[in-house]
Amino acid sequence: MRERKTDDNVILRLLQExxxxxxxxxxxxxxxxxxxxxxxxxxxxxxxxxxxxxxxKEKKFVLGKVEGKSNIQAVMQSYDVTSKKSAKAMGSxxxxxxxxxxxxxxxxEYCGIDKPYRIRRLKNIIDxxxxxxxxxxxxxxxxxxxxxxxxxxxxxxVSVDEILMDVHRSLxxxxxx
Length: 177
What we know:
Layout: H1 8-16, H2 21-28, H3 32-42, H4 49-52, H5 56-66, H6 71-78, H7 84-95, H8 98-110, H9 115-126, H10 131-145, H11 160-172
């Protein structure tokens, strides 16, 4: 068996001293990704009330979601599913459970990805000079606050293109003169 280049106790000590993953990687002469993977294995998930009530497979699903995986990817890594279609259906069912939703929220906050952080990041995306990125950020914000919900548009249909053009005009003025 190959000898490991890192020492878990030293990694933990360097973390406690305030070193970041890049600095720890340089200390051992390995990549930051290797240190990240090792730290991930060394640090157990936080003990949160909602997370502890989940089954082992639900916990694995929640951890996948917090890592940034889609519902389908998180289900496929956590459950024995035979197709993407069944994974999609199961993912929707899991995400509808309040315990799953609360666990994801708690773990994201534990990792420093709380709501104010996400809002700041979304604002940075919307404020981007690249209009394609800004449009995607706006679209994401509309989805998050429910602006696309059918009940909000009872008096008429507003296309996304119209909304984006209004935003573009408000940012850059009306260039039709």
